[in-house]
Amino acid sequence: MKTPYLSKAKAFPLQIVLIVPFVIQIFAAVSLVGYLSFKNGQRAVNHLAGQLIDRSSDVVDEHLKSYLSIPQTLNQINADAIRRGILDVRVDAARLRHRKTLGKYFWDQMQAYDLTYIGIGLTTGEGIGAANYDGKTITIDDWTAKPPNNVYTYGTDEQGNRTQVNARWNWDNLSESWYTQPIAAGKPIWAKIVTGNYYPTGPYIAASASRPIYDSQNRLLGMIATDIHLLKLSNFLRSLDISQSGRVFLLERDGTLIASSGTEKPFTLINQKVKRLRAIDSSDPIIQNIARHLQISGFGSITQDTDFQLEVEGKRNFVNVLPWRDKYGLDWLMVVSVPENTFMTQINANTHTTIALCLGALVVASAMGVFTSHWIVRPILRLNWASEAMASGNLNQTVETSGIRELNTLSNSFNHMAGQLHESFTALEKSKEELEDRVEERTTELKNTLEELRRSQSQVIQSEKMSSLGQLVAGVAHEINNPVNFIHGNLTHVQEYTQDLLALMQLYQQYHPYPVAEIQTVAEDIDLEFLQSDLPKLLSSMKVGTDRIRQIVLSLRNFSRIDEAEFKRVDIHEGIDSTLMILQHRLKGKPEQAEIEVIKDYDNVPPVECYAGQLNQVFMNILVNAIDALEENNIKRTYQEIENNPSQIKIRTSVVNSTWLEVAIADNGVGISKEFQQRIFDPFFTTKPIGKGTGMGMSISYQIVTEKHNGKLECFSNPGKGTEFIIQIPLQLRNG
Fold first, then answer.
1. What architecture (CATH level 2) is domain 565-730?
2. CATH 3.30.450.20-classified regions of the chain
3. pTM (2 decimals)?
4. What is the structure's pLDDT at 505?
């Protein structure tokens, strides 16, 4: 009777099996490299843009602090001189000498500082000041209280002496904002920004630092003011590196432009009259679009550093808005904008190069894969053809050897097998009759041994499983042990080198406490102080981690029956503490999980003879189960319930009857029912959901304590109140 053919599953040619996965892996790698290259480029752009914006903001902030502090400081100096009588501000006609001296005094200060105007206005309506609107020529203004033509503008020589009258015009300082605002405030302030069209220098925009002045009896004399030309701020902003591609501009809280790095001035001329320019009306598209974006939420609502991205004419811009204030009442907005394409050109070029190289590598690797698979498949196909011929009954088959050592060995083995098979078929024909006679005898013997085989079947299967598992574990432990020992051994040198480098760095900082700005910037960027303190801790943590891995490897070797050398005296507290340290990430509090408090009650316990690695495994299994129970319990409780009854694990050690070590580990979790307590140490029994536990941890722990250490492991639990595991092992396991 012919044996029916088994149904054949769908099969693929070996060449396709070799080539397709290979090409898919390369394609996936190329795609991943291209994607990561693009994402890294994006992150680099964001990082560089942030750095450039922050650096530019810092430069502008420092310049504003320096430039705007001069007028207020100079006002304070002059006001103090007036109050002490050092500077005589009486400018009535009877004291012409004082008028000329005061004008020359202001002329000297204009020479020393980069100012537009400095002068005083008295409560009588009189005053005197010096002006420099074109940056070259300094004039002196001297006015009386009554218009018309009460202001005389004098030209000056190189010593500040008055020469000829250049102009006469009307002026009433009692009605001007730079006079009325500080008088009303009774303190130094920045008056409202003013504009004008001064002949012959043209239009200007200025900010006035104003301060009331008093005599020695604290009587109000008037006001002193110092003006700065705000177009100089625009000149400074245009000098920044960022101004070639981005924009930096200053706004008042009503959205009016103060200065910008663009070519546009912050004012316009309408019928020869100067009018302030609102940012939303700017001809610069970047400034205009940013201002419109800020206007939506309101310029006055910006109270802190704000970052956002904005599309302008199809190009993305990184924008930073920073409130800028000083103690004299200035409340401006500083805006820095950088276009993305400033950085993307080179990054896009690098990305295209990377993609091209990856595609080239894909083509080359695919071609090599096809060639390699063809080289490997041809000898295998010859073996396949010869095997099919033998299956059809043609036993006289030989296979040519190939250039691949392993396939060549396989071919020789096949040829030898074919010869042996031919001889075996001949011998089988001769022994057929003998076998029929012996079958009956063997049948009787088999019946007798069948029962014995059935009885020992379970034991044999279990023994084979444990033997295979032991060999596997021993192999894994051996393969892990070498690299771990290499890492562990080198960590000590790394720690020494790190300490030497940190000591060198500290010595360098001691003798060179003020490095150059570039080094200081890098030190702040990498947080050098935190790195110096955290790197030794990091290396210590890595050493603890390798120690734990080595202990795990030793535990694996113990499991594979090569643990005789690991029986020794140890401090049991070190094992418990090491296990707690490994589990620290689960014990400490997290936003989604409350902290688990560990309470230690260690007795004075002598060194214990034991298998330390296996005993640490017991501690690990019990503590992990306790943590799982506490986390499960916390999910069902409210925050207030957790506060009133926090999660705790109590660990107690003691010596019993001078010969036994007792370790008790208790938690206040959900507890275990009476029914489950009886099965807690059964193999594969677990109370956890499917996929969260195998049920082997407590069974293995029970074997380690009872069989390896001749001890006891007991479980006591009250449902809803917690669970306690008590371990007892002899202090001396064997006499030696």
1. 2-Layer Sandwich (3.30)
2. 88-229, 234-343
3. 0.46
4. 81
